[in-house]
Amino acid sequence: MWHLLEPLHALLYYAPEAFDEAAALGYDTAERWPSYFAWRSAPLGAPGPARVASAFYSFSPEMVARYVTEGAGREAQAPTALPADVLAARLRAVDRTYRSVLGEDTVKSPELAEAAALARRAAEAAGTEGRPLAAANAALPWPEAPHLVLWQAATILREHRGDGHLAALLVAGLDPVEALVSFAAIGAAPEAVFESRGWSAAAWSAARARLATRGLVHATGAATDEGRALRDQVELRTDELAAAPWAALGPDGTSRLAELLGGPWLSAIGSGLLPAENTLGIGKV
Questions:
Q1: Closest CA to 47 of 67, 25, 19
Q2: How many CB atoms within 10 Å of residue 284?
Q3: pTM for the whole structure
Q4: What is the reported pLDDT for 120?
């Protein structure tokens, strides 16, 4: 279900319509990070860079500080963009993006409305205790249009899973940069892809050395058997912590939602907007 829903959420970070909306707020759109941090952190209100780095986990604090202003809840590139303005703009961005990528017929179809209703049921069953990003998104009012309901449900569910994933990483004793190094070590994506998270070469090398001391990676950077086993445990625990919404929806509802998401998923993947290589496994089956 995550693989089906994540591309529908992630279009926001790559679609030209989203960059248009970000530019209208005053954000620099020469790269995607100013709007990414704005879109994703806005539900938290005005958290500042320390809280954003904590909640996002995998980004270096230095990178976060370049895009999130202390105490302002907005980025330095757009000091007038308040969280409420960003939240309104991101829904406009999703509306325009879905109409472009999925098509007007799909957006207005009864099948998409059914998918939205099922996804919302799952999202409303997602417990948010100890899950700051899931809680922040779940606290937002539901939009009326079904395609926006689908996006918001996908967002709550992916942040619910992501918050649980961070808990699994903490239990495994993997700090933010170690989490990325260990993920690259099992071949999840080339190391160059992980450079997008802003860690220096020195920080990456130090993390690899710490993991090697624990017997989790070889000197070459490839995972040892123990390292692969630890990552397997992290993914299993992540799945377990993400299971409640789908248990609440039930096998029939979950299967029906998966069936209904097939067409939109293909449209999102086929749009060419999402990167072929990424740190999340988008598009892999």
A1: 67
A2: 8
A3: 0.94
A4: 98
Closest CA to 77 of 87, 65, 93: 65
> What does the CA dihedral 24, 73, 177, 196 come to, rounded to 10 degrees?
10
Region of 62 (left: φ > 0; alpha: ψ -120 to 50; beta: rest) is alpha
Q: What is the pLDDT of residues 184-224, one digit of tens each?
A: 999 988 888 999 999 999 999 999 999 999 999 999 999 99
CA 147 vs. chain centroid, Å, equals 18
Q: Give helix 244-270 / helix 2-10 axis angle, nearest 10°.
A: 50
Please state, for a pLDDT cut of 70, what percent of the chain lies above it.
Answer: 94
Q: How far is CA 93 from the centre of its chain?
A: 16
Residue 271 CA to residue 266 CA, distance in Å, equals 8
* Burial class of residue 98 in the structure, from the number of CB atoms within 10 Å of its CB (0-12 exposed, 13-18 middle, 19+ buried): buried
Q: Phi first, then psi: what are they for 217, rounded to 5°? A: -135, 155
For the chain, report the end-to-end CA distance as a whole number of angstroms: 11
Reference 121, options 275, 257, 272; nearest CA is: 257
Task: Check residue 46 and give its pLDDT.
Answer: 81
Furthest C-alpha separation in the chain: 56
The reported pLDDT for the residue numbered 76 is 45
